[in-house]
Design brief:
Layout: H1 2-9, H2 11-34, E1 46-51, H3 56-67, E2 71-74, H4 78-86, E3 92-96, H5 100-106, E4 110-117, H6 122-155, H7 160-163, E5 174-181, H8 192-215, H9 222-249, H10 258-283, H11 287-301, H12 313-321, H13 323-336, H14 342-380
Parallel strand pairs: 1-2, 1-3, 4-5
Antiparallel strand pairs: 3-4
Keywords: Membrane, Transmembrane, Transmembrane helix
Domain ABC-2 type transporter transmembrane: 25-360
Membrane topology: Multi-pass membrane protein
Length: 381
């Protein structure tokens, strides 16, 4: 009983309870508001149509543009469409081949070709595969009507009995072929961007907290702040090497040069460290609550589980301001391929610069406040 009383006298006992409660409240509030109405925003997904058939393909294209509940764009060539897909502008490309009309007329069979971007949230990939089947079925109905009208015109003169023959026409004139663009084998590979972002940020959050505690025990001043940055950079460099070794050990495909991946992960972890230490410098131990909130916000807005465009405008904006979005996007490129990492590295460096400036300002203010408190206590004494 005496031991229990001792625990209850120490503030850290209550801090632990508050942190546990904060995790529950923050995650419930953030996740349930972030994913509210996601299905209603499915119309924000982007699909490109490349029509290479000037006959029946033109009618099919018009029908798809009118009926598909997505953002549909006509592209002139597959090269341009794939280039835009690699830049994450399109989730899927529907290709109508040159021989589409000819194959329907002469062979009675043809294929629509679907290119689905695998460097994307799992929800987006699954949704696009379902859309491909739905498009195939709808086009089959259109082609069946077209064929029936054409045959009916020719048989009209032969009497009503002959027109019944067109009912035997198959409705399965159109099949479909799916190409998985920027593909990587294995279900677990799809979870790597989320896993690395989560592990890196939680590690950065805990490390920043421990370094902050140590910083209170050593000499105060700018040397204190810059010493922490040197430690942060050293750990980021080593962690990036370990990350690459683990990816190789678990046979995670890497589409970028090893040096580029190392540089990217170093910047990612340093960006997380810069963000987490900023809140601690500004708010002290209470900064951990902001870090917990930031963790939750990043997990829902990074575009790993749910496509970025299917989130509300508020969460899209939040995602654009936080490093996890660019970290996850970069790892999709590293693992699946596509565009280069330049844009993501640039945004991460901007976040580092901003958070470092705010952190050093907050640190200088805290030093000034402590000096003033010391002077006041000295005068009172």
């Amino acid at each position: 009983m005496n031991t229990l009383k001792q625990f209850l006298k120490i503030p850290g006992t209550y801090v632990g309870g508050v942190v546990a409660l904060a995790f529950q409240l923050i995650f419930f509030c953030v996740w349930l508001t972030a994913y509210d109405g996601v299905n209603e925003r499915a119309d924000q997904m982007h699909i490109a149509i490349v029509n290479q058939d000037t006959n029946m393909g033109s009618k099919v294209t018009e029908g798809l543009q009118k009926n598909l509940p997505f953002q549909v764009t006509k592209e002139k060539s597959m090269e341009e469409a794939k280039e835009e897909m690699n830049a994450h502008a399109y989730d899927m490309i529907i290709e109508i081949p040159t021989s589409f009309s000819k194959d329907v007329s002469e062979k009675g069979k043809t294929d629509l070709i679907f290119h689905i971007n695998q460097a994307n949230a799992m929800m987006a990939k699954q949704m696009m595969e379902g859309v491909a089947k739905q498009v195939r079925d709808n086009v089959n109905k259109e082609i069946s009507n077209y064929k029936q009208q054409a045959v009916a015109g020719k048989l009209q003169a032969m009497g009503p009995g002959s027109v019944e023959a067109i009912k035997g026409l198959t409705e399965d004139s159109v099949g479909f072929t799916i190409y998985k663009v920027n593909d990587a084998k294995g279900f677990s590979v799809n979870m790597v961007p989320l896993m690395i972002v989560l592990a890196s940020f939680v590690g950065a959050m805990i490390m920043s907290m421990e370094l902050y505690k140590v910083s209170q025990l050593v000499e105060r001043g700018l040397g204190n702040f810059f010493s922490r940055q040197l430690i942060n950079m050293a750990v980021a460099v080593v962690l990036a090497i370990i990350t690459i070794v683990l990816m190789k050990f678990f046979q995670i495909p890497i589409q970028e040069p090893i040096f580029t991946v190392w540089l990217f992960q170093t910047i990612v972890f340093f960006a997380f460290l810069s963000l987490t230490q900023m809140f601690l410098n500004l708010f002290g131990n209470a900064g951990m609550l902001f870090n917990i909130l930031t963790l939750s916000l990043q997990l829902v807005s990074a575009g790993v589980m749910v496509p970025h465009v299917m989130l509300s405008h508020t969460y899209q904006t939040i995602g654009n301001l936080l490093p996890a979005t660019y970290a996850a996007d970069g790892y999709y490129t590293i693992i699946f391929g596509g565009e280069n990492l330049t844009k993501n590295i640039m945004f991460l460096c901007m976040i580092i610069a901003v958070t470092q400036i705010i952190a050093v300002i907050g640190y200088k203010i805290s030093i000034s406040l402590k000096k003033n408190q010391t002077v006041i206590k000295g005068n009172e004494a």
